Amino acid sequence: MKKIVLIIPLIFFTLTLHSQANILNAKTPQEIGLKTPQQIKQDNSKPLPYPYTDDKDVLWSIQVWERIDLDERFNLPLYYPTDSMFSTTDRKALFDVLLEGIKNGRIKEVYADTYFKEKLSWKDMEERLTFVDTMEAGIDQYNYEGKVDEEYIRRMQLTPADIEEYRIRGVWYFDARYGELRYRLIGIAPVAYDLRATAKGMDAELVELFWIFYPDARDVLHEYNAYNPRNNARPINFDHMLNARFFTTVIYKTSNEYGDREIREYLHEDALRQLLESQRIKEMIREYEEDQWNY
User: Fold this and answer.
1) How far is CA 148 from the centre of its chain?
2) Mean pLDDT computed over 151-156
3) Whole-structure pTM over 0.90, yes or no?
4) Which residues are CB-contacts of 263 (< 8 A; sequence separation ≥ 6)?
């Protein structure tokens, strides 16, 4: 028994070292973060497949739209690292991971709206993420010389540091087959201040840059880890984090008979009441499962 007691912590310690991505075995700084051939061979994990859910087994459901405020301390793992200098082969900001997946074609289901009606190409994406403008000196130069030097062209591009929040769309449903309340994430969208208004010094509003149909992004998100503040040796990938709801949110809209109107549309200019309404909806969803077992 003593040997078994000693072996179990040793196994756990070995797995912990394995999760450090070669940091303890690297002979040069360039080898930190690179997996050994043995690790690559053993690392064949994939996102856990969603179970098939028959519509007749869904006793009750409600669609919910939520905001993930990146100023909240608990949500910071979805925001950092904002500087590419601190990015590694397996850890990047969520925004960078999504953009990389879209650019290389691994994430194909990208849309302009939350209902996935208008599909976006990478060219459309570039127009949303960059802003190019000619300065007044460049306009004067063009009027006199018919050309504009590069120094008079202003280029701005959104970075992970510009992302203010994420908006997610999901479904809470009661599965009659398993007798439990479940959640399925449907879409995710990064949100930032309007780049063109910001560049022109105008009051900018938050805009949804694009919507991704979440099941199409799971393979990419599974490959990148977010920071685990409780244990550096046990990072958690973005797919696991989002599916397990390791974040705090505020509900801003639910499916309803009024065309899925937002809370702010019927509680005008009252942030406190809007927050209380969000909490009321959360409690209503939470209590539904308990009510199924009360007679």
Assistant:
1) 39
2) 74
3) no
4) 251, 252, 253, 274, 277, 278
